Amino acid sequence: MKAHTYETQSTITPEKALEFLQEGNQRFVNNLKANRDLLEQVNATREGQWPFAVVLSCIDSRTSAELIFDQGLGDIFSIRIAGNFVNQDILGSMEFGCNVAGSKLIVVLGHTKCGALKGSLDAAQIEGLGMDNLNHLINHFTPIINEVIEENEERSSKNSSLLERLNQQNVKNAIEDIRKQSSTLRNLENEGKIKIVGANYDVETGAVSWLL
């Protein structure tokens, strides 16, 4: 499988880009990796890159987007931050990926058993460790916890139902933030030039489910 070129990228629709990732995850789950010469792709992309998708995922070591979607060099822009949320710098990266470099799809990829979200549920314990910047990060999810937690429900990472509801809502909120905070990406989506979708990776099975 060869690296994408300007010509191949320009023919990809947002729907086809999504299909590429869906098919790639099916190959990953079935252990049927596409045949790629990565050194050939290094050579093919030395003058430029034409990725067809931007994937925002967690830094979790189990969630490498290139691997779980079975993609090669130059196929996707991979943005990673603990808890897969957006900020201004990440939005700028997405704007570059889509409006400058021509990507057709944005995926916000959450995952089961997310450590960042577990930390937000156990914030009192994490804050006791005295890591100022980590405390700042996990407090980002407090408003989302308040959205999904039920009255008298246990706020704990051991509460698997709450953790998964938080994971799903966090992905949905990130998509809303992209649309609200970036007029560039919102306009591209409204014009049908890109799609913005959510997804969830299961760390036990390797399968990606889609929030379309």
From TrEMBL:
Q: Which domain of life is it from?
A: Bacteria
Q: Does the keyword Phosphoprotein apply?
A: no
One family name in Pfam for this protein? Pro_CA
Organism for this UniProt entry: Chryseobacterium flavum
For whether the record's keyword set contains Transcription regulation, the answer is no
Task: Please name the GO terms that the record assigns under molecular function.
Answer: carbonate dehydratase activity; zinc ion binding
The text of the family note is: Belongs to the beta-class carbonic anhydrase family.
NCBIfam families in UniProt: PRK15219.1
Q: What UniProt keywords are attached to this protein's entry?
A: Metal-binding, Zinc
The protein here is known as Carbonic anhydrase
Its needed co-factors are:
Zn(2+)
Signal peptide coordinates: none
Q: How is the cofactor bound?
A: Binds 1 zinc ion per subunit.
- Positions bound to Zn(2+): C58, D60, H111, C114
